[in-house]
Amino acid sequence: MIRICSQSLGCAKTRVDTERLLGSLGPVLMVSEPEEADLVFINTCAFIAPAVQESVRAVLQMAEDIRSLPEGRRPFFAVAGCLPGRYGIADLKAGLPEVDLWLHTDDIATWAEQLLQAMGMAGTAPHGRLLSTGPSYAWLKIGEGCRHSCSFCAIPSIRGRYASEPLEALLEEARGLLASGVRELVLVAQDVTAYGTDFGKDPRILLEKLLILEGLERLRLLYLYPAGLTRDLLAFLRAAGRPFVPYFDMPLQHAHPEILAKMGRPFAGDPQLAVDRIRDVFPEAALRTTMMVGFPGETDVQFDALARFVEKNRFHHLGVFAYQPEEGTEAASMPGQVPDGIKEERREAIMEMQRAISEDILSGYAGQRMEILVDAASDEWPGLHTGRAWFQAPDVDGVTYISGPGVEPGALVEADITETKEYDLVALA
Q1: What is the model's pLDDT at position 184?
Q2: CA atoms within 13 A on the CB side of 89
Q3: Which of 165, 262, 361, 412 is 20 to 30 Å from 145 at the Cα level?
């Protein structure tokens, strides 16, 4: 049995890569400290500069912790993911000789074999998944890389062009997750609507098979590019009904056509059309999006257009990011870089608007009875748990604080909404 101390940084897609690796190393025991481990594994993120900095800090800190251990107690140290994918293994190896093995994003399928061989445990790696999200939900990564070329994004250079995961492998993985007691599957990729397009199909080829799986209570789709949310796909989802959750996460990034065109977004026209298309088919839909402020050349007029768009459309959930110039991207060398202070002012202005919108939307659920999927016990007081209503996705949205009979991790319970806050709900089963 391999004792493993593991860190997974960044997004849900990275977490899935980590869980798949850990489940493919044979019998393992997860430990919290490097001195207890045979293997220390860090899966890094390098999407934007702050993520790079966090990943570098984590690797340097772990290297220092390992160096402080007696020679015979030092674990094998492996680092994987977007950091070596973005900067290459050769330079990182020279700068961090304490790392025993670097694993590139191009080689995800062979990470387990490489690790076992490097640790002197060569053999056939079993296929598996070691969940780290608790019993209620699991992420299902359905594709790798990206088919788009946005001017601000380094993902295609790190993860490559889009490639769908094999259909039968995904179905086998989904069945295994549901058999373990998972109630909700959350589909993720850089663009979930791209599934199947690399072999002449569309996401329906996967969705129609997932929707009928025994034990599935919720199917949630994240990262949906507006251009891929066609009327045909929306009609399919409308007809499917439960367990599909009418929650649409569209990364719009902006609302002004000139900024969208400079961003190189694949729908650089009127994003209102994408919002209206969804709400025409799903009037009850919960919409989530992300916006970027301070893109090079963004004027006050263009920012005001974004603010009006947010105010008009009243998204259930909205994340706002200040533009970061990323090395190697087209946008980093564009003229008209916006000062950091202005970017932060604009970010806070949109977030202040969204706080009021979110609080108002959630207040409408007060007194309703609805199903809450319980995720985990809360540290606040015994008996209190965190869970999620259908319009709350894990990690990225608010939560429902719930207590009462039958409330335990993994349970799907009926509860009364007794209180609403800016981003969270309170419920009693």
Answers
A1: 98
A2: 13
A3: 262
Q: Summarize the confidence of residues 24-35 as an average pLDDT.
A: 93
- Do 10 and 105 contact (CB within 8 A), yes or no? no
Which residues, in sequence order, are bridge partners of residue 188? 141
For the CA atoms of 17, 192, 190, 80, the dihedral, rounded to the nearest 10 degrees, stands at 10
pLDDT for the residue 252: 95
Per the DSSP assignment, residues forming a β-bridge with 3 are: 29
What is the CB neighbour count within 10 angstroms for residue 162?
A: 20
pLDDT, one tens digit per residue, over 233-280 is: 999 999 999 999 999 999 999 999 999 999 998 776 789 999 999 999
**66 membership: H or E segment, kind and range:** helix 49-67
416 three-state secondary structure: strand
For residue 118, what are the contacts with CB-CB under 8 A and spacing of at least 6?
A: 76, 78, 100, 101
Tokens representing 126 are 């079993």
Tens digit of each residue's pLDDT (9 = 90 or more) over 343-369: 999 999 999 999 999 999 999 999 999
Q: Which residue has the tokens 């509860």?
A: 415
**What number of other Cβ atoms are within 10 A of residue 137's Cβ?**
24
Contact 373, 137 (CB under 8 A): yes
Tell how far CA 310 is from the center of its chain: 22
CA distance 43 to 322: 25
In order of 63, 67, 403, the CA distances from 370 in angstroms are 48, 52, 14
Residue pointed to by tokens 């296929």: 127
**Would you put residue 85 in left (φ > 0), alpha (ψ -120 to 50) or beta?**
alpha
Query: What domains lie within the chain, and their CATH numbers?
Result: 2-118 (3.40.50.12160), 137-363 (3.80.30.20), 369-428 (2.40.50.140)
DSSP 321: E
Mean pLDDT of 67-81: 92
Average pLDDT of the residues in 25-38: 94
Tell me how crowded residue 123 is: count the other CB atoms within 10 A of its CB: 9
Residues in the chain: 429
In 10 A of CB 94, how many CB atoms? Answer: 8
Cα–Cα nearest to 23, from 160, 188, 180: 180
Dihedral sign, Cα of residue 337, residue 341, residue 344, residue 348:
negative
- 161-201 pLDDT per residue, tens: 899 999 999 999 999 999 999 999 999 999 999 999 999 99
Comparing CA positions, the residue from 246, 158, 160, 253 lying closest to residue 198 is: 160
